[in-house]
Design goal:
Helices cover about 5% and strands about 40% of the residues. With about 675 residues, the chain is mostly beta strands. The strands form 9 sheets. Strands 14, 15, 16, 19, 20, 21, 22 and 23 form an 8-stranded antiparallel β-sheet that branches. The chain is elongated and about 115 Å long.
C-alpha cells in the first residue's frame, strides 16, 4: 500500500432540475471518470500503466449544513479483484464558509469557499452544477461544493492514483470510493464504483486546439481582428458521459484580453476499431455520441476518427486507434459544433504573439499528464511571411530550419528535416520533406523572379557552403539543394544545426568584359561578353569550376544610360561548359545577374573561356564614356562568386577588366 499523496480530483455538482426539499442535504460521493495512461519512462512500452481517478462530492436536496462536515474518502484500485492501491483523502466541507454555496443565480460560484481537502492544504471552491444544461437551466442551476486538484492549483494532475501497474488486454480495473473511518456515510453508493475493462490501448480524454485564425473585424478599426478558435475534445476507451468544458483564455504579451467559457458536454460512446488507422478506417464512421452547447440549444454528433496518442507520455509505440471526438470543425461542413469566435481584438504587428490557452472549467475533467501540450497555441499577426520568419529585420530567415507562411494574417510554422527543403515539386510552396531537384528549381526561379512562393523560405544558406542564409535566393541556394541531394552538404537541422567548414581558395582568376563595339551612338544596342582566365600558376596546376554567378553594373556617362535588356549564355566553342554538359542556368535582368552551373561534379571544366553575354540599349540622350564591370566585393554583398569542385571551394577573382564604351553620334562597326 502506497503512502498518501495528492491527486487530481474535481468535485462536480448535483442535479439541476427541481429537487424535493429535504430536511438535510445528502452528500454523495461519485466517480466521474477513470483514465489509464502509459507509465512515463516504462522500460516496456505498452506494459505498465498509471490509473487516474476523477471523483466528486455532490450535495443533493435540502439546505447546506451550517457546521463543517467530514467527507473524507478512501479510494481503492483493484485489478482483476486484487487490491493494488488505496489512498485516503481528507475532506472537510463547510458550505456556508464563504456564503451560500447553493444559489448560483445571485452569486459567483468561483468566489465562494466551501471547505478544505488534503489535511487542509487545499481550499475548496463552489462550482456550477455539472447538470446545469438544457431548457430552464438558468432557473434550476445551483452551486455546489467541489474539491479541486489537491496538489496543483491549476488543476493539472501531477500524481496518479496507482502507478506502474502491469496490464494486458482484458484486465479489469475497478475503482471504489468508500467513507473513511469516522466520516459521514455516502448518500448514494450506486455511483461509488467504476469498472473499466482494459482493451490494450490507453483510456484517455483530451482537449486540443486544432487551429487559431485571425480575420479582420468587418467594419472594425485598423488592426481589429476576430479570433477564430477551433478546439476539440476527444475520448478513447470511455463509454459514459464526461464533462470536457473549457475556459478559452486569450492573452497578448502576457496580458489577458479575453476569457470565454465554452460549455460543451462531451457524451461519448466507445468507437469500434476497424482496420488499424491511419491506413484503415474507423467503424462506425458516423455518430458515436453527442456534443451539446451549455444551454442545451443544439446537439452535435460526435464522430469516430483515427488518432495517435502523443508518445511523450512514456516513449510508447502504440498504433493509432479510433477515438470519439467532435464532428466537423465548421458548421458549414456538415453540422459540427463549429469554432469559437472572440470578436474585435486589437492585434498590432509585430509580436508580442497572441496566445490561446484551453483551461478546464472548475468541475470539469482536468487534463491528463502528457496530453496538455496541445492546449496552448501562439499565433502572430503578420502581413507577409517575412513578418514571421524575419522578426529581427535582417532580410534573412531567423532560423533556416523553420518554414513559415502568413495565412489569414496569422503566422504558420513547420519544422524542416533538412535546411535546403524549399518547397514541393511543380512549384508547390509547402515542404515535401526532401532536398532534390524541386528545391534547386525553386532557387533558380526565385532568382529569376518567377517563383510565387515566399522568398524567406528559399533563402536556405549562403555562398560557398555557408549554412547561415544570406538574404538572397541565388546560386548558393540551388547548390545547397543539389549537394544535399547528393549527400555532400554538411548543413543539417537535427540533432543540431551544423555549420559548414570555412571556404578554401581553389584558385585565382581574372574576368574580362569584352564589348562587341567600343563606340556606339544613341539608340544603338551593345553586347558585352564576359570571359574568365586563370592566373598563370593556376593554369599550370589546373583548377575546376562547378558553377558561377555574375553581377554586373554600369557606371559613368555624362547623360542618359545604358539599359540592360538581355542576358544570354551563348552556345560557343570556347564556353566554359560545353554543349554536352548537364547544366542549369537562370537570369535576372532586374538584378543584372546570371547563374550557370553543372548539376553534378562529374563533368567539371577548367575556368577558362566564355561565361555570359549582357546586352544593353543606349538611350536616346546618352553621351559620354560608360564603364560596364563585374561586381565582386564580398563586403558590399555583391553577387558574383565562382564555385570550384566542392561547394566550399572558392575561386578568387583577383581583378576584372571592365568594358569601356563611348557614346558618340558617329556610327561604329561591331567587333567580332
Amino acid at each position: 500500500m502506497s503512502r498518501q499523496t495528492a491527486m487530481s480530483i474535481a468535485l462536480l455538482a448535483g442535479a439541476c432540475a427541481a429537487s424535493p426539499v429535504w430536511a438535510q442535504t445528502q452528500w454523495n460521493r461519485k466517480i466521474g471518470a477513470v483514465a489509464i495512461t502509459p507509465t512515463s519512462g516504462s522500460p516496456l512500452a505498452g506494459s505498465f500503466f498509471d490509473v487516474f481517478v476523477d471523483w466528486s462530492i455532490v450535495g443533493e436536496g435540502g439546505s447546506p449544513s451550517s457546521v463543517p462536515l467530514d467527507m473524507s474518502t478512501e479510494v481503492l484500485v483493484m485489478r482483476n479483484g486484487t487490491l493494488i492501491d488505496l489512498r485516503l483523502v481528507t475532506v472537510s466541507l463547510d458550505p456556508l464558509a464563504g456564503g451560500d454555496c447553493t444559489d448560483c443565480q445571485t452569486t459567483n460560484c468561483g468566489d465562494l469557499n466551501c471547505g478544505t481537502a488534503g489535511n487542509g492544504l487545499a481550499d475548496l471552491q463552489c462550482v456550477k452544477d455539472d447538470f446545469c444544461f438544457g431548457p430552464g437551466s438558468v432557473l434550476d442551476c445551483r452551486c455546489t461544493c467541489p474539491k479541486p486538484c489537491l496538489a496543483d492549483p491549476t488543476c493539472v494532475p501531477d500524481l496518479p492514483l496507482a502507478t506502474a501497474v502491469p496490464m494486458v488486454a482484458g484486465d479489469e480495473i475497478m475503482v471504489i470510493l468508500r467513507p473513511a473511518p469516522g466520516a459521514l456515510p455516502d448518500g448514494d453508493p450506486s455511483d461509488d464504483i467504476r469498472i473499466t475493462t482494459f482493451g490494450g490501448d490507453p483510456v484517455v480524454w483530451n482537449r486540443r486546439i486544432e487551429s487559431v485564425g485571425l480575420s479582420p473585424t468587418p467594419g472594425g478599426p485598423p488592426n481589429s481582428f476576430d479570433v477564430v478558435i477551433d478546439w476539440r475534445s476527444a475520448t478513447h476507451g470511455i463509454d459514459y458521459p464526461v464533462d470536457l468544458s473549457v475556459e478559452v483564455e486569450l492573452s497578448i504579451g502576457g496580458v489577458v484580453v479575453a476569457s470565454v467559457v465554452d460549455e460543451r458536454l462531451h457524451a461519448p460512446v466507445t468507437c469500434s476499431q476497424g482496420d488499424p488507422p491511419p491506413t484503415g478506417t474507423c467503424s462506425p464512421l458516423s455518430s458515436c455520441g453527442s456534443w451539446s452547447d451549455g444551454g442545451g440549444i443544439a446537439a452535435f454528433p460526435l464522430e469516430c476518427r483515427a488518432d495517435c496518442l502523443d508518445c511523450s507520455l512514456g516513449g510508447c509505440s502504440y498504433p493509432c486507434w479510433c477515438q470519439c471526438e467532435a464532428g466537423p470543425t465548421s458548421a458549414e461542413s456538415g453540422g459540427g459544433a463549429g469554432p469559437l469566435l472572440i470578436a474585435s481584438i486589437i492585434v498590432d504587428p509585430p509580436p508580442p504573439p497572441l496566445v490561446v490557452i484551453l483551461r478546464p472549467v472548475p468541475g470539469a475533467l482536468p487534463e491528463l499528464p502528457g496530453l496538455g501540450g496541445d492546449d496552448e497555441e501562439s499565433v502572430e499577426r503578420c502581413a507577409v511571411a517575412a513578418d514571421c520568419c524575419d522578426q529581427d529585420g535582417s532580410g534573412a530567415p531567423d532560423n533556416v530550419c523553420t518554414w513559415c507562411a502568413c495565412r489569414d494574417n496569422v503566422c504558420v510554422y513547420a519544422e524542416k528535416s533538412v535546411p535546403s527543403d524549399m518547397g514541393a515539386p511543380l512549384g508547390g510552396c509547402a515542404l515535401d520533406g526532401f532536398c532534390n531537384l524541386a528545391d534547386a528549381l525553386h532557387a533558380l526561379t526565385c532568382f529569376a523572379g518567377d517563383n510565387a512562393c515566399d522568398i524567406i523560405n528559399i533563402d536556405v544558406g549562403g555562398p560557398l557552403g555557408a549554412c547561415a542564409p544570406d538574404g538572397f535566393c541565388n546560386l548558393a541556394d540551388a547548390l545547397h539543394a543539389l549537394t544535399c541531394f547528393a549527400g555532400t552538404n554538411p548543413c543539417t537541422c537535427f540533432p543540431v544545426m551544423a555549420q559548414a567548414p570555412e571556404p578554401t581558395v581553389a584558385g585565382n582568376v581574372t574576368l574580362t568584359m569584352t564589348p562587341d563595339r567600343r563606340s556606339v551612338s544613341p539608340g544603338d544596342e551593345v553586347s558585352v561578353r564576359v570571359f574568365i582566365a586563370p592566373k598563370n600558376a593556376d593554369r599550370e596546376r589546373g583548377i575546376d569550376i562547378r558553377a558561377y554567378q555574375l553581377h554586373t553594373e554600369v557606371s559613368g556617362g555624362r547623360a542618359g544610360s545604358l539599359e540592360l535588356i538581355d542576358i544570354e549564355i551563348e552556345s560557343r566553342a570556347d564556353a566554359v561548359f560545353d554543349e554536352m554538359s548537364d547544366t542549369f542556368d537562370a537570369v535576372s535582368i532586374a538584378k543584372a545577374q546570371v547563374i550557370n552551373g553543372l548539376f553534378s561534379d562529374d563533368t567539371l571544366a577548367a575556368p577558362e573561356g566564355y561565361l555570359a553575354t549582357f546586352t544593353y540599349a543606349v538611350s536616346s540622350n546618352a553621351t559620354g564614356v560608360f564603364v560596364i564591370d563585374v561586381l565582386y566585393d564580398d563586403a558590399n554583398q555583391d553577387q558574383t562568386f565562382l564555385v570550384g569542385r566542392e561547394q566550399t571551394d572558392k575561386i578568387e577573382i583577383d581583378e576584372t577588366l571592365p568594358a569601356v564604351i563611348t557614346v558618340t553620334n558617329v556610327r561604329s562597326k561591331r567587333i567580332r
